[in-house]
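Quick one, tokens below. Sequence please?
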């Protein structure tokens, strides 16, 4: 078989295996911290009352709060099999979102097989380089608050592209519930949607384009949902726990530093660089079929490059502004998800602008070089980054050993709840899996200890070796 016949199909199969492997790792996932506290609120107050309490006393996430309160842990630890299905479901939704978006963007010239390969690359590369894999997919509270709206954004964008292209009113109407839900999931996605809407409006104004009635309705909806998030009473209550919040200069400075940090980290990923070389080599060939590529999406570098940095800045700034710290990296995960396609968009912009420098290779040579580069990508995905850690966790038995330790921990907590003193002293997880684990015990004031105590009906949960630390709080 020649290169044209087997290279990309084999690579697609490999990427499918990588994604399936990450999904399979969900069978070792366990609830942690907020998973317990939200489920306990649901049991004690009822999910609807608890959601209203969250809006009044903690945050304005009117959509994701319902998801975490109606989560699989409502059925207790006996329903952990449902908890463990969530990562696999999220990987499927992420791939389907990317596939749907690519089909909408490349229609009618882009074949379904090409869109599927692009979606596989996007999903696998994101899983490989995202800053915090465990919070992104395996911790239910974090994954449905951040990764689910990431994927749903792609469906919404696909609908928007179709509605604009076909001038279809029903499509524009269908996008309304998508956007309302997405904006209500977290502050970062809300900010991205609002900024994107404002930029689209400014571009339309400069082009002297008239807005349709549907466009006006969607814009009003986006602003209204954003205000519902921003003006939530709970934001002020939650902010009181973070005395370093609302420091503009510090927030701007730290956000700029984090933008530089994550840009360098992701741009230095070998898989991303190798795939960039493949994209660059094939750009001239692809541009002949896809007008968007040949024109560089109608952008110039001075417009496209700032967008690449802006998406990271907009994702990290809300955390610094509202809390004074970045805390968990769930917001950086969002930035990474959108950074990857913007990276390749910028490559197209530069290739279109400096077309004379794009590699000119004979078809046979190009296919051979492509096969070699994709082989190197496969090696990198197998031995480094999040993918390499996941493989190590499974092949060394680390994930399975941690699973056994956590089930033993639950049994110790149940036994302690039957004793009159109501105090449990339990061991740390020895050698926890790097791809799965979020947080372990600290001192009795730490959120993990407190959530275990509340869930199992204990007065206090202590580790075998007490570690003194400040009370920690969820920040993102």
């Amino acid at each position: 078989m020649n290169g044209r016949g087997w290279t990309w199909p084999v690579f697609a199969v490999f990427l499918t295996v990588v994604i399936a492997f990450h999904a399979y790792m969900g069978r070792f996932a366990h609830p942690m911290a907020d998973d317990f506290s939200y489920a306990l609120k649901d049991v004690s107050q009822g999910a609807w009352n608890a959601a209203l309490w969250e809006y009044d006393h903690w945050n304005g996430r009117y959509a994701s709060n319902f998801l975490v309160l109606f989560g699989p842990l409502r059925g207790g630890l006996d329903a952990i099999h449902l908890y463990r299905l969530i990562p696999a479901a999220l990987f499927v939704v992420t791939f389907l979102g990317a596939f749907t978006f690519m089909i909408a963007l490349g229609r009618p010239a882009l074949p379904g097989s090409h869109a599927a390969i692009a979606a596989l690359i996007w999903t696998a590369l994101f899983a490989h380089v995202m800053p915090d894999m465990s919070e992104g997919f395996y911790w239910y509270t974090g994954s449905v608050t951040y990764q689910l709206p990431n994927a749903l954004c792609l469906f919404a964008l696909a609908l928007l592209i179709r509605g604009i292209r076909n001038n279809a009113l029903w499509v524009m109407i269908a996008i309304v519930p998508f956007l309302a839900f997405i904006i209500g999931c977290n502050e970062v996605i809300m900010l991205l949607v609002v900024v994107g809407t404002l930029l689209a409006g400014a571009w339309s104004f400069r082009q002297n384009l008239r807005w349709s009635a549907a466009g006006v309705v969607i814009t009003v909806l986006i602003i209204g949902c954003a205000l519902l998030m921003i003006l939530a009473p709970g934001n002020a209550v939650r902010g009181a726990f973070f005395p370093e919040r609302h420091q503009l200069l510090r927030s701007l400075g730290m956000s700029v530093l984090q933008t530089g940090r994550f840009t360098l980290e992701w741009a230095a990923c070998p898989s991303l660089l190798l795939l960039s070389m493949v994209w660059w080599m094939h750009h001239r060939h692809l541009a002949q079929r896809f007008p968007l590529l040949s024109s560089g999406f109608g952008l110039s570098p001075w417009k496209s490059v700032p967008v690449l940095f802006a998406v990271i800045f907009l994702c990290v700034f809300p955390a610094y502004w509202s809390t004074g710290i970045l805390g968990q990296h769930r917001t950086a995960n969002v930035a990474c998800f959108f950074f990857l396609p913007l990276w390749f968009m910028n490559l197209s912009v530069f290739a279109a602008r400096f077309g004379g420098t794009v590699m000119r290779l004979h078809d046979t040579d190009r296919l051979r070089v492509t096969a070699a580069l994709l082989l190197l990508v496969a090696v990198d995905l197998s031995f480094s980054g999040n993918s390499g850690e996941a493989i190590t966790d499974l092949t060394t038995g680390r994930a399975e050993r941690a699973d056994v330790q956590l089930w033993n921990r639950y049994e110790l907590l149940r036994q302690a709840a039957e004793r009159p003193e109501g105090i449990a002293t339990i061991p740390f997880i020895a050698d926890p899996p790097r791809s799965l684990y979020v947080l372990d015990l600290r001192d009795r004031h730490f959120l993990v200890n407190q959530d275990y105590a509340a869930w199992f009906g204990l007065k206090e949960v202590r580790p075998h070796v007490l570690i003194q630390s400040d009370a920690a709080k969820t920040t993102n």
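Residues 80-106 form the longest helix (27 residues). Strands lie at 423-426, 460-463.
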